Amino acid sequence: MFHPRRWSLARQLLAVQTVIISVLMAGGIAGAYLQARRNSLAVAQETVLAVARTVADDPAVLAGLSRPDPTAVLQPIAERIRVDTGTRFVVVMSPAGIRYTHPDPAQIGGRFIGHIEGATATAPVTETFTGTLGRSVRAVVPILDGGQVRGRVGVGILLDTVSRGLRQQFPLLAGAAAVALLLAGAGSWLVGQWMRRQTHDLGPAELARMYEFYDAVLHAVREGLLLLDRQGRLQLANDEARRLLGLDGDPVGRPIGAVGLPEPLALALAAGQPRTDEIHLTGDRVLVVNQAPARWDDVELGTVVTLRDHTELQALTGELDSVRGFAEALRAQAHESANRLHTVVSLIELGRAPQALEFASAEIAAAQQLTDQVVGAVREPVLAALLLGKVTQASERGVELLVAEDADVPEGAVAPRDLVTVVGNLLDNAIDAAVAAPPPRWVRIDAAVLDGELVLRISDSGPGLEDVAQAFRRGWSTKQSAGRGLGLALVGQAVGRNGGTVEVAGSAFTVRLPVPTQ
């Protein structure tokens, strides 16, 4: 069945263009015909006026008017001029309008039909009038002799003659219009073919539906989505991508390096290389970045970038690592306690009860002293638990973890999660650095609240950092293994999130975090 609404957009466009072109061509032909008709009438008026003036200025005509029988002299002259000029009539008349000449001799002596009174030397009469021969375009001019009107000359061309000449031009006009219509139709067809390829022969309803779903998906998807062209210019960023990257204004069309992204992320995306689950930090967020080529019909259009927010997951992972380390420390302590318990039991079995009591008391006192020192100095329970676990971990690796006797971390000074991130990562790096250094191997943590700031200082017996400027960038590490280079970046992010600062002097890291006023 004939359903224009089901046509593709290209076909509908071709149909609309064909109708518009046909209407325009029809209007153009009609306008051209009317213009040609007006031009033909104007030419006819100019022709009859020129012939009339020529006849009026002819001395032979003026002389003929003075003869007793003007018709005998003027009729041959008028007919010869009429035939030579192709006009329909040349009538020489008296001042009162009595004909001396006429193509139809029977009309000679009759009165000229038309307006002659207004004909003067400077203002001849030109009009379209119906006379004895039919409707004609005519001109009437006076024949003057010394300023006196001795007669008048009327010259006319029938409208049928004008129309006949116009009809002779019509085939040429119609042919030109047909050629123009053909060329316009061919152009419309080519445009339709191009449009068909661009729209994949889809109809307006299908395109509208696709756009609606496309726009809805882009706004509803929980992952950030970026589209980059082959030149690295941003072509699309959905709502989630703008939120995760903190994009303001309209960044579309700008190079990815000029939209305000952190330098490592901008360089990675601009390279256009495939990436799988790369971790990048942007301000206060940890993002998982994936990048893949975008192709259509084996033509590379650019790259597609997806972004996932792993800020909370990364924080929870850090806490889980701390808990895991604490659990490992507890297992190690349980193993060590079992060894000590076996020692006590063996001493008792050997009848050395005093030595067993002395040994057990010394171990209990040492363990209690460490616990009392940490718990007394660090009133934040989460951080205290972290430190107890790190002490055991460090001991297992041959490193002595020291907590300053005057250390003080009040409860609630800083968000526990951020404290775990900062202290945990700095202690891990310090223990690694101390292990790589010659004995004695140690790590020390100092803490105090000074001038409204919690000041944490973690130092170690390692060689210290050489490239401090690069240390807090994601991916920088002194260790040659995969998955490194995120700890200090997370520290910098957590410190920045709390409005603090980090200072590095050799192997000592000093962190200053504002303490909220009560």
Automatic annotation (TrEMBL):
Keywords: ATP-binding, Cell membrane, Kinase, Membrane, Nucleotide-binding, Phosphoprotein, Transferase, Transmembrane, Transmembrane helix, Two-component regulatory system. Residues 210-252 form the PAS domain. The keyword Cell membrane applies. CDD domains: PAS. GO terms for molecular function: ATP binding; phosphorelay sensor kinase activity. One of its GO terms (biological process) is regulation of DNA-templated transcription. It is a multi-pass membrane protein. One of its GO terms (cellular component) is plasma membrane. Its EC number is 2.7.13.3. The chain crosses the membrane at residues 12-34, 170-191. It catalyses: ATP + protein L-histidine = ADP + protein N-phospho-L-histidine. This is histidine kinase. It comes from Dactylosporangium siamense.
